[in-house]
Amino acid sequence: MTGHREAQEFRLKLVEEYAGIGSVRVRDRTLGAIPYRISRYQGMATSGLPIPGLHRIEGTLALASLPDAATLVGADVTLELEDGRSLALTVVDSSGRVLAEGHGPRHGCGCC
Fold first, then answer.
1. Domain boundaries, the chain
2. What is the value of pTM for the model shown?
């Protein structure tokens, strides 16, 4: 019961949305001109303060034009945004859904 109560003591708040055309790095290759739409959510305590390290990034990459899109399912990729920032994501399905949760150096944060 305690674990369930603790899990309900925060919520995810939409803090940023990105849309544009970027490039995707997969292992040793770069796929260019990939349209994307990404939402970034921040974990918030019931007090209204952000919880460091608790976030969720989700969205879509337009992978339909790639003949081998299905081979990317489960792959860790890096999306280079139009503004120069990059996001470490995992491709969830062949339609281009992507996701990242939590934190750590492997997922793009520099805090640990």
1. 2-107
2. 0.77
